[in-house]
Amino acid sequence: MIIWDNDTVYAGGSFNVPKVNDEFNQFEQSPPSQQEKPADTPSVKEEKGFWDSISEPFTEAWDWTKDKLSDAKEWTKEKISAFWEWLTAILSKITEVVINAFVATWDWIVKFKEYIAFAGVLIIGIALCFFAPPLRVSILTE
């Protein structure tokens, strides 16, 4: 029967198996030895051949063009990003103002709904007095 515990293993219950680290801790550990580096050899410059001298201006022009295009791409990304942030901020403020205006208008309508209804009936009654002569007499007499 084998029972596993955190650090100790019991095999059959008759003896303890020592930790492996106990044996390794008996010796001092020294830093790894430094290998000697070979003496620096002078670098050998390669001479440019005929094709290298012809293709070098084209290579330099291509590298310059790639650098300029990369810079232009980064500049464009920065400007578009800044414009997008500005646009979203402006639209956010406009939306906030419009929604606040609608909410304020609705709150005002709910607060004064009786007065608004009274004004609407009064305006319709006055309009009927001027534009519907048979109703004028009945409205004025009541």
The tally of strands reads 2
- State mean pLDDT (0 to 100 scale): 78
Q: Please state the CA-atom Rg, rounded to the nearest Å.
A: 46 Å
In DSSP terms, counting alpha (H) and pi (I) runs of 4 or more, how many helices? Answer: 4
| Ends distance | 109 Å
Helix content: 55-70%
Low-confidence stretches: none
Structural class: mainly alpha
Name the strands of the widest sheet in spatial order.
1-2
Q: Tell me the fraction of residues in β-strands, as a range.
A: under 5%
Give the SSE order as H and E letters. EEHHHH
Q: Shape from CA axes? A: elongated
Please give the largest β-sheet.
2 strands, antiparallel
Describe the protein in words.
The chain has helices at 20-24, 50-111, 113-131, 133-141; strands at residues 2-4, 9-11. The chain has 142 residues and is mainly α. Among the domains are: 60-108; 112-142. Strands 1-2 form a two-stranded antiparallel ribbon. A hairpin with a 4-residue loop joins β1 and β2 (9-11). The chain is elongated. 0% of the residues are buried.
